[in-house]
Amino acid sequence: xxxxxxxxxxxxxxxxxxxLNEHLAKLMHVKTAEIQHVAILKRSIxxxxxxxxxNLKVNVFFQGExxxxxxxxxxxYKNVANAxxxxxxxxxxxxxxxxxxxxxxxxxxxxxxxxxxxxxRRRDLKAINRDGIVxxxxxxCFGEGGAGTYSDGKLYTRSKKRGDVDRILALLVAFGATPxxxxxxxxxxxxxxxxxxxxxxxxxxxxxxxxxxxxxxxxDILIKDREIQGVITQNGDVIEAKKIILATGHSARxxxxxxxxxxxxxxxxxxALGVRxxxxxxxxxxIQYSCDFRGEFLxxxxxxxxxxxxxxxxxxxCMCPGGVIAPCATxxxxxxxxxxxxxxxxxxxxxxxxxxxxxxxxxxxxxxFGALAGMEFQKAIEQKAWHLAGETQKVPAQRMVDFTQSKxxxxxxxxxxxxxxTSVELGQVFPAFLTxxxxxxxxxxxxxxxGYYTNDAILHAPESRTSSPVRIPRDNATLxxxxxxxxxxxxxxxxxxxxxxxxxxxxEKCAIKCVETMK
Length: 519
Description:
Its cofactor is FAD. By secondary structure, the protein is an alpha+beta fold. It is built from 13 helices and 22 strands. It has a 7-stranded mixed beta sheet.
């Protein structure tokens, strides 16, 4: 019987199997030769003390004990080519995992994606980065894999109560992700590796008889007597089905507008908005690891911070160690930032969204837009940023201390944001209440993380697509829209997820509930 242990070791021990075996042998008062195998179940970093430690949960197998390397395999997916059909709108994690779950349950998914396939998106990402050209259907937010594909590939979620996180991680491993994601406390695939996994998921859907339609935008949802009948695409094609899983993501404003126009119940939802702050990664390492140089056995340090400022939460969001800032506009005439990291997290800079929670009352100046008030609030800030930065994809930027002191920065060093920056007093971008909270908040951040509050940190504005500004209400038990039969609002865009894992979980849940009503 293997022994399960929780241990804490130095980083160099955790990184070297020989040293780890020696440590375990000493701990258990046995000879090293008696240990056949050590399986690492969970790994996390403890940087609370000056000497950084690695927490490990391990299974120790002794000589003579049965040990087999477990292989994670895909479920036994059925061929559903001739099965009943369900439309899935959106090929982000919610839509793709909904489609896989439908196949597993014997139902044919028709996945409709406005953007291009995961490889085709790259040309449009190059165009927005180098030429400032925004393709409204293919960008960092729209296209196969959704916003997460080219926006870091973080797999950490706090939403443990929402569903089986390990099941989603195991499916990703079966589709080609490193098994390490099952072990790490904050798993991460990396923007450079995730596209192949997404492509393999799509190929499995097609192999099993499902359909995936790219560059196909839904322009109307057919409803008769408050029941779903199908959709119409931009080419005028009608695709009929009695069930729609609507998994369009948090930036599909045209879908929100369509639902509002058709008098389908939606509601404004609070979200968070702010800036994306970039520091030298070496500075974050020094702060987090309390050392001048992190060494070869520690990864680039992340950080997580939250403060209450004037009754509002101000916090880090989607922190990207060793990463870059990307232009994530989805329409011409707006500027939006986000961050991502490659799998090795080996870039020289660290960035994080630093955002402030908004309340429904903040959207009162846009009350005439009804349920779209929050979306219009968001849009107005993105458009103002575009105008102030020179009406290109350059982003308004300011040094952190200068921002808190209302000074226009005399110079902005080159940052990881490829389209470039324009020195702007960021108080011009945001409403006064939001500006004041962020100014006070950064000073407070500096008191908790010594060295964080510095003019070496560059703020890029805005970080505005943290979550959907609209919720599409659904029944808690059936997950069906409160008024439209056969409509299943799903994932981030509907207001029920926040990240790859929680969106995938929600996609599976919606697929299961959808199929239950078809039997």
